[in-house]
Write a structure and sequence with these properties.
Length: 254
Amino acid sequence: MKSCTEIWIIAFWLAGAMGVPGQLTAARSDEKTFIRPHCHEFIGGPAGFVAVGPGAEVQTSADGANWVHRDPGIFSSLHSLAFGNGVFVAVGNEGAVVTSPDGITWASRDAGTDERLRGIIFADGRFVAVGHSGTIITSTHGKRWAKRTSGIDERLLAISHGQGVFVVVGWNGLVLTSRDSVHWSQQPSGTRVHLRSVTCTNGVFVARGDAGVMLTSSVGDFKGQLPRSNRRHIPWFFAWLQHDTIARRWRGII
């Protein structure tokens, strides 16, 4: 969702406009109340907002307050979506990929994999999706997908883009980078915790993981190596707020 102008900006703007930071608890749907925790991701497009979530959940809204359920034509849970080249693309479990020109009518696509896909981005004119077992696939318009070699078999959980660089994070502190989405290199992160999200704002990547771990990296002088990450100590309470769950223990070092 996601270049340096992250769609999370859209998400937070939408939530803030409704008076509930980080949630959509006040939003209504034609069939039931739409609550943010049941949505894995939502973004803005030319006709409004589109949200995806567990149980093949797809909803659309023109104003961010009233939501309508849509049928994606599949049964797999959807984890992430992106918009580019005039099309929405959502990915999820069992290699699920669905596309839509308007967020209303959806078509299933063959991703060439049955691995769980956990993140997708549109950047540099292409979609790049990542998932379990080191899966990376790319597509221009979301219809035909090409497998790329990541060189690892860890679970990949999120992807971002900035300064001409794709950055992927995953289990055991994994960080992968690429300039063309085809050739990937593993970079040191200085941690072994699972990294679950990565964003890019003003040329700075921020990766977040378990136990409140947050790594930052400036890529202004990127030369094929991810610059040394900065370890930051974050109080457990803020880690709890960040992940919407109570951390069972505090590991001390971040």
